[in-house]
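ok so for the tutorial part 2 we go from a plain amino acid sequence to predicted structure tokens. step 1 is just haveing the sequence, like this:
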Amino acid sequence: MTTRVLLVTTNGTGMGHLARMTAVALAGKRTGEIEPFILTMSVAAPMAAQMGIPVEYCPSTQRGWHAHWEWDAYLRERLALLIEHLNIDVVMFDGVMPYDGLLAVMPQFPRVRFVWCRRGMWRRDAKVARRALARARFFDAVIEPGDLASSADNGRTAKAVNVIRTSSVSLTADVDMLPRDAARAELGLDASGRYVFFAFGSGLTGDSATVLRALVSAATLHRSTNAVSGSPWQAWQVATVKPWRDAQAAAGVLYIDRVFPLVRYLRAFDAVVTSAGYNAVHEFVSAGMPCVVVPNSASVTDDQEARAGQLQLQGLALTSSASAEPLNHAFSALLDGWVPTNTAPACNGSAEIATVLATLAARTDSPELSGAAVGEMSRQQSRIDTKLALMRLVGPVLISALRRLRGRRSAAIAVNAVVITDDLAQVAAHPADAAIEHLITTNHSLTSGPSTAVAYERARRELVRKVYSSRL
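step 2 — the prediction. this is what the tokens look like for a chain of 472 residues:
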């Protein structure tokens, strides 16, 4: 019997955790070991759905539709409904900090296995590390996908015990790349052009804007230098995807429509400039692309500096800080034709993880949780309920005032309407004062029949009424 798995991911606007779980879902479907369903907080949810994976969107607190004090209770209810109505065997969370709402739902489903998937290479000074890693004891298993730069890992996770370590995870293992001409034709690129792809997330802010400007400048200088010298040359064009939300376009940049999975189109580009995040590295570097990898200085837990430096030592990529001089040096080498001197190993971790999940579900023994861990999960439930009741008693106006005094964001933005829809396209495009409650269609194949699907939709509508009634 195929294992039914609920893959839960963080990410407000990015795709890192969602891309990793999409890879696991595709691998599991291919081998027939798991039947995956994704619950994600990323507005990129429609992209995963295009891959044929059932996806439901859950707004995080970043959307502002839920106050912090009520969101964990909301997440607990969302998880409970999906686990029950989809008859889930295993829940796997991919993220840095397992949410209180996730821990609180565990005691309700003693037969379900709960797994935490987290990458390694945490910064040694990561402030959340101690609290986050302490939550490993609540899970049946902790999985750490491999890292191409793991030999440089000396952070908080490097010596963690009772961890299942797999090969690296990347969509390159489960998605076929188009030939160069076909990829360019689909993206509308010139068949004879030279393109350097800029892959730095969902918006031009901070270091990413600095890096993009430096790349455009380097491409322009490279064109002028070759023209003056009279040597044969072909102009470089900087290309990037359109941002998720409106952002100021950079001069000299070609914007292409956002596509997913991007790995399918990698051969359309001659070189890449990217951050040193896990998914970016394991897509571009493992595909053998000539890359300049720029560590994100704002990363909270991910030791991108160590990863980038190790990749350069291994001859897999060039690296640079986000400062002008090193950027110019790295970009000059890239545009002059630098190529990797070594080949990265295949990233087959997604299939390995799918096998782990199926094996875990097949076990008949009871979860080996300590009495202290079980007690803590129950107390987590009680704390959420107590906080929710107390906050409702105090009232949203006073709560907002107290949060402002402490320098925190007020409880929640005004919501004048709630749109309940099975259309994922509405997740990112909606009126500012309307909350989106997305749910799977009532005839979805993962549900246990029409009656179960109708019951799920009814329960979701009741949850919407309970959560938003005081603000509509």
